[in-house]
Design goal:
This protein has about 190 residues and is mainly α. Helices cover about 70% and strands about 0% of the residues.
Length: about 190
């Protein structure tokens, strides 16, 4: 029987908090059980195994990230939307490092295809990029460019990888401005190629 007050939502939220404290890769069912003062077996009522817990944390974090981005880009278009999107992404990655790391977990597409967070992420991201006049297959290429740039920058920044004396935020702003120029001048490809 599950310990009173322990729910799947509480277990996943605690795992996300633990990820921010000790790193996503260090979240274990044992560490989580200790946090709740229960035996590991008590958690199996709420999650199937460690992979299920990691997936649930990833889905929670992905939902939080897109909620933050959606709020930031609401009512904006073009460069303003791109800047708001980028800044919300970066702030989340730096403020919630364990949760952010969870968003990079590869999850089976069949599992997430019907989740509201996944649909919302696609709607907001593709909607922002359509303001640049992009259609498929260019939309997919642009999404990949943004994700690679944002993730790479955030990972390097969080890891102390920028050693030059230039202010990291100013470099971020320049990178986002350069992405805007790239999106405005996108080398379009015909869908039937």
């Amino acid at each position: 029987m599950a310990r009173a007050g322990l729910t799947t939502e509480r277990v996943v939220a605690a795992a996300a908090d633990l990820a921010d404290e000790v790193g996503f890769e260090n979240v274990t069912l044992s560490a989580l059980a200790r946090r709740f003062g229960v035996k590991d077996a008590s958690l199996y009522v709420h999650v199937r195994n460690a992979q299920d817990l990691r997936t649930r944390v990833a889905l929670l974090a992905g939902g939080e990230l897109i909620d933050r981005i959606a709020e930031a880009v609401a009512g904006r278009a073009g460069k303003d939307a791109l800047t708001a999107f980028a800044d919300a992404y970066r702030e989340y990655a730096l403020e919630r490092p364990g949760r952010y790391a969870a968003t990079q977990l590869r999850i089976d597409q069949d599992l997430i295809a019907d989740t509201p967070a996944f649909r919302r992420t696609a709607e907001i991201t593709y909607g922002m990029l359509r303001a640049y006049g992009l259609d498929e297959p260019d939309l997919t290429d642009a999404v990949r460019l943004l994700r690679a740039t944002f993730h790479g920058y955030c990972a390097l920044e969080a890891g102390g990888g920028f050693g030059a004396p230039r202010d990291v935020r100013r470099s971020w702003d320049k990178a986002v401005a350069a992405l805007h120029i790239a999106l405005e001048n996108w080398p379009r490809e015909q869908a039937n190629r």
